[in-house]
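Saturday, quiet lab. Running sequence design on the structure tokens for the scaffold JK sent over.
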């Protein structure tokens, strides 16, 4: 048995896959503890993982709800800057508190979310082996691969390479406050300096739940990088869910079901939901809108023609849907796993990059947030609903994702790294 620690952001899109991997490792006899903010304890209560609180001074109980309210009003570069500021504060806190927390609990091995930027340095300081887990788009930068925050298409030509390099440089510039902290902390702890940001990721294994078939072509990934596909709970019930996720499918049996979800963080701009509802009004479909918040008052949701749910049984509705309207977050993998095509309205962070990749393989249409209108959205909905190739392509991707291995393969890779302490090479 090995005591494995998990470091990841307190967001559902990160907590659910990390908890799923942690639970599988528990089933194999390991002890697993998640280190998180005070608000995280309640979120993961149903996961059965161990929990150790950090960050109570910087992020006291209730802070996440306040931050969510603030970030939900932002999009694009403004939201990215806000997230960077929060990440900088979290990085400083982790350097101060995580080493003692990990020592006190006797953790022997770490699983570090790729966006927990402090994780690799903390592991090096404590001389703990660690694995990087990417729950969104891989942050590994390459000249021919557009930055994750852009809708840029993949082009292997000189002008696109220059464009990409400029985009990567801008991201490095925006995130320099975080990396300045990392450089300073490594100097203070007398650790070897990073030659590039990729040095912050694990030299044993890097596990990505984004399917390889969906990513842009990559040439520079390390041989210990593994695309394992969706890190969903094999039971179909995610660790973080609401007890009141009920829905009767009888009310939608006579029409095509269109499901609209903007996730649990970027879901508070109800103008987008209003546009979605109006775009579906003249179509012979039943729209179901998921507000992504079990505490929201749906009586104030004026979305004509839509069934409005505060917090829906996400995967169950996706499985029955003919089309999903999404912000292109983690919902994309859930849709493709079910073979359901999409219309994407990317909002911020890696949403544009994910949307660009799904559009490239012909499983969705994309409506940039700045171009969103009832007319434009309705045209895209009709195109995806009534052009068979979108569903065909989604079904093909579903078959490929099923072959990737998911949670079980991720756990196999982790156990091999624990046993050998050597790089786990791809096959």
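Result came back. Writing it out in full:
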């Amino acid at each position: 048995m090995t005591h494995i620690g998990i470091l990841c952001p307190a967001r559902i899109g990160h907590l659910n896959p990390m908890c799923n991997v942690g639970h599988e490792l528990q089933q194999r006899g390991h002890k697993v503890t998640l280190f998180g903010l005070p608000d995280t304890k309640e979120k993961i209560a149903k996961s059965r993982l161990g929990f150790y609180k950090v960050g109570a001074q910087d992020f006291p109980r209730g802070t996440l709800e306040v931050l969510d309210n603030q970030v939900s009003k932002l999009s694009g570069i403004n939201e990215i800057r806000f997230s960077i500021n929060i990440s900088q504060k979290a990085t400083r806190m982790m350097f101060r508190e995580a080493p003692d927390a990990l020592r006190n609990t006797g953790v022997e091995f770490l699983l570090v979310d790729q966006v927990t930027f402090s994780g690799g340095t903390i592991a090096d300081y404590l001389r703990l082996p660690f694995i990087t887990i990417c729950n969104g788009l891989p942050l590994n930068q390459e000249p021919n691969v557009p930055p994750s925050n852009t809708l840029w298409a993949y082009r292997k030509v000189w002008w696109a390479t220059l464009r990409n390099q400029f985009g990567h440089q801008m991201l490095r510039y925006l995130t320099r406050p975080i990396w300045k902290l990392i450089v300073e902390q490594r100097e203070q702890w007398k650790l070897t300096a990073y030659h590039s940001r990729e040095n912050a990721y694990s030299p044993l294994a890097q596990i990505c739940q984004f399917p390889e078939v969906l990513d842009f072509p990559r040439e520079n990934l390390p041989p210990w990088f593994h695309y394992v596909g969706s890190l969903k709970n094999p039971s179909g019930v995610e660790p973080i869910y609401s007890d009141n996720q009920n829905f009767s499918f009888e009310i939608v049996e006579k029409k095509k079901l269109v499901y609209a979800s903007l996730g649990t963080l970027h879901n508070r701009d109800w103008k987008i939901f209003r546009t979605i509802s109006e775009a579906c009004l003249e179509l012979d479909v039943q729209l179901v809108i998921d507000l992504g918040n079990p505490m929201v008052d749906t009586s104030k949701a004026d979305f004509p023609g839509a069934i409005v749910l505060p917090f829906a049984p996400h995967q169950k509705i996706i499985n029955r849907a003919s089309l999903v309207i999404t912000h292109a977050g983690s919902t994309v993998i859930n849709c493709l796993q079910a073979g359901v095509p999409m219309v994407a309205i990317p909002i911020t962070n890696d949403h544009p990059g994910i949307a660009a990749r799904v559009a490239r393989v012909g499983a969705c249409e994309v409506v940039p947030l700045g171009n969103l209108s009832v007319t434009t959205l309705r045209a895209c909905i009709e195109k995806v609903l009534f052009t068979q190739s979108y569903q065909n392509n989604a079904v093909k991707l579903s078959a490929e994702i099923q072959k990737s291995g998911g949670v079980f393969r991720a756990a196999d890779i982790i156990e091999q790294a624990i046993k050998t302490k050597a790089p786990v090479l791809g096959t």
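Notes for JK: The mean pLDDT is 92. The chain has two domains: 3-229+404-420, 249-402. Ask whether to fix the surface positions before the next round.
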